[in-house]
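Two proteins, back to back. First:
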Amino acid sequence: MTERRYFIETFGCQMNVNDSEKVAGLLEAEGFAAAASADDADFVFVNTCAVREKAAEKLYSSLGRLRRAGARERRIGVGGCVAQLQGREVLARAPGIDLLVGTHNISRVPELLRRADGTGPVVDLDRRADAFDVPPALVAHRNPVRAYVTAIEGCNHVCSFCVVPRTRGPEVCRGVDEIAAEIEQLVERGFPEVMLLGQTVNAYRHGEHDFVALLERVDRIHGLRRLRFTTSHPSHVDRRLARAFARLPRLCPYLHLPVQSGSDPILASMRRGYTAGGYGEAIAMLREECPGLALTSDVIVGYPGETEADFEATLDLVARSRFDGLFAFKYSPRPGTAALRLRDDVGEEEKTRRLRVLNELQQRWQAELNGRRIGRVEEVLFESAPESHRLSGRTRDFRIVHSDGGEQAVGTLCRVEITGAGPNSLRGRILH
């Protein structure tokens, strides 16, 4: 009997990656093997992101490529946020899909695939389903050193530009003991690092346990070397969380804390729930409690109504905040969001200019910041060997380090002397 093969194409955040790992594990439990490319697969699953228009359009580009390469008989599935948001509209726009599955229904992919007989698409978009029902032992973690573990699904915030509440639903948290048990199994399987996931992970609360209590419980797991989490909301940052970075030995000093804008009128229109000054106070508190904390953030430029003065306020906040990294994006209208009612009045050319100016500012700062590391010795966890005798890994504060070395170093913690730096990564030499 010919072995069946699958291929998964993933767009979006770490939660999408983790969902794809779950689908992969479920398919492998059904006897499928991973294919090197879509061309070699009997089943192709496209896991989508709907946060920005560009990310959503990647789905249709991918499906178009599959249709053009359609000589091989294969089943095609679509899941994730675009599937949940657009529903059967996806089928109308991209004929030839065999199964369509929502964000809460990925555990049903093998069952739906069995039902997909080529006579029409099989659809399951039930958002009431249990999003946590994939057995942890089946998850096919792809990173050899860092395992993703979902702690909270959905979001209760109502940011005007964001589709997550519509695609992922309201916040639902897993129990502390359930999360800890999964991580204990991962440590036994050899994973030295775990990253807790959630659309707003620091909003976690289950019974009497809040997010800091969850961090404390996970930090006590014997054998775990590094603990991280993403993504956080500024409204849920307090002094207890700030102090956790300083006192929990396995919790890495890195926090991704999206600000989105430095303008108070724009933040109010975005419904972010804080001011630029309040955000500044939060990061000052974090750095007071943990001086070595690395901070990264998200910024949207060209949001409806953003004037040049608003944009200058964002540049000022970014300059003052001195982020270790920044993910900047042009605003794009998303269906079903409150911002869709606003006139998208910043032209595309101006959005592009603002994005360029912001990125240039941040790149200059990152080059200076990384340059200060030359000569230091860092603890690096190597996670890949993209080229022969070339390694790539991360410091505790999540900076990328490239070094000479062989594949045998993947998964090991090494002392590395930093010998060079660019705006986006460091170069180093392993100390023996």
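And the second protein:
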Amino acid sequence: MRIFRLNFLVLVYLPIAIAISGQSAGPQIASPDALLRDQPVAITVTGLKPESSYTLRAEFASRAGTIWRSEAEFRADSKGEIDISKMAPVSGSYTGVDPTGLIWSLQNSKEKSPDGLTFDSDDQSVLNVMVREGDKTIAQKYIILRNRDIGVSTTEVRGEVTGTFFSSKLSGRVPAIISLGGSEGGFDRSYAALLASHGFPVLALGYFGTENLPKDLERIPIETVDRAVEWLAKQQGVDSSRIVVLGRSKGAELALVAAANGPRIKGVIAIAPSSVIWEGISQSKESLSSWTVGGKDIPFAPYVKSEEYIKSRRLIDLYDPSFDKAPVESHIAVERIAGPILLIAGKNDLLWPSSRMADAIATRLAAKNFKYKVLNRQWDNVGHHVGSVPNRPTADSVRLGGTPQSISKAQFEAWREIIVFLNSLKR
């Protein structure tokens, strides 16, 4: 097996705070210079004219360099300060008191940034916060939002196991995680980086849609996860008796199937989960299972293409009736999982009925007298992106259900649930 080691390139220089006026006593933006992605950004502005109006503008450059922008007008208090954690904007991209409002309300401006150093990456994003008086910028600060904290290193793994291994910063043997992405394929590096930044060794495992792996999400061997468990158990700092699988969407389906068939897996975190095994996703005209075991298709729920789906082409209109008619043998035997389970779902999921399926999992486990802890966490007005990495624009996320503000709030809460769940597995 070939293993390639990569060093984390830290952004060596970024203008952390700039008082455009050139006067140290002028307006200043107080906030952390850098923080982990699942921590809310606290922004306070001082040195302003009391009871005067100012605009706070935030900008974020996507991986392609496209600028996302939000703006909110505030009125400084009697001390000449603005604290967005306590004050609601007078007008702008969001309403109400919300310390994360400037981030989740970012919108695609269609403009391009010339500064490649600030482009989004697997490791970090850079938020540019400005204070404007009229059409003049009077203070500015760059805040680094880290997926991968300093001290977390990566190892590229190729061979029987394909993925990226993120080592933790902690010493000793701790629970380790296999992270599985969804139907987009490839590696789920951003999730893995943030989990490792909290002290857990993580393997972002590829199972299709990348080098030397199946092109389509069809007939994927669950032994792919078994081999990953074997590999991860041998790594430094890993407690081989406490390996957890985290998956989202189709990755959550695989996580539950693999854990139900793999006794070495001692816990599952299933984000926007499925309670059944679904037909594969491919260009093939033949209906085949998403997963195999021992080279044989695992019984699956075929797609039922209703009249409503044919008209709407919405995936929820495909999955809802298909779930209602799912064969008994397609339901995942989650009661065979050898550890606690955390379910995370949005009640307004417009991709597939993850809320209903999470309830089905919890109901089945209760009926089977499952001996481990089961946490079924769900959020109103939130869709398929319920468990995505926080502190990101959520305007585009509404196409899969929910409202931008509710999605953002749920993402922070879901990540707190995830970290608490993982910390509970430590000895």
